[in-house]
Amino acid sequence: MADSATHAQPSSTDGQTRRDFLLYATTAVGAAGTAAALWPFVHSMNPAADTLALSTTDVDLATIQPGQAITVVWQGKPVFVRRRTDDDIASATKDDTADLRDKATDASRVQKPEWLVVIGVCTHLGCVPLGQKAADPKGDFGGWFCPCHGSHYDTSGRIRKGPAPLNLPVPKYAFTSDTTIRIG
Fold first, then answer.
1. Residues 25, 71 within the same domain
2. Could you tell me the CA-to-CA distances from 152 to 13, 65, 170, 174 in Å, in that order?
3. Which of 38, 68, 104, 106 could make a disulfide contact with 156, Cβ separation 3.0–4.6 Å?
């Protein structure tokens, strides 16, 4: 009788193995359930389809004459594209040695000297500076002027006077051909 009672009891090693298996299986099922429950929340943080559609903007440069500027919209922000004249380029490179609040050379802000591409939002309070139209005031440095608080930008989009702390930002862009750029 004592022999049959001894054989009916599982060994402590078998009990630990089963217990470990149940622990691992429960943990795995719990982790999978948590991931499945959190996925909709994580997925909701991805950009919407309409936002992704605006992630890049192609701009045809063929019709822009020297001295002319256009405004395009990229990700809901105005982007100033200006075809600079030789005088604009000379002024911008000459101003590389000026006392600049936000130091940047003209060469670091352009891919081709003739074309300047900047986000057209004043870095002070988010206004849209004037200077895109021929009749607009271009400020003391020939670039852009923000009439809200008096910020003046040069022909390279660098802050030169007024309360704005930073230059007009240069978005990521690339020339896809000699007459086309892709912003974004």
1. no
2. 80, 24, 17, 27
3. 106
**Which position has the higher pLDDT, 144 or 17?**
144
Residues 55 and 33 in one domain: no
Active-site residue, selected from the candidate residues 43, 124, 149, 152: 149
**Domain housing 19:** 2-43
43 is catalytic: no
Give the CATH number for residue 61.
Answer: 2.102.10.10
Ranges of beta strands (E only) in the chain are 57-60, 69-74, 77-83, 115-119, 142-146, 151-154, 159-161, 173-177, 180-183
Q: How far apart are CA 173 and CA 181, in angstroms?
A: 7
* pLDDT tens column, 94-133: 988 888 989 999 999 999 999 999 999 999 888 899 988 8
Tokens representing residue 89 in the block: 């380029």
Q: Are 155 and 142 in contact (CB under 8 A)?
A: yes
**Do 95 and 161 lie in a common domain?**
yes
Are 38 and 56 part of one and the same domain? no
Around Cβ 146, how many Cβ atoms within 10 Å? 26
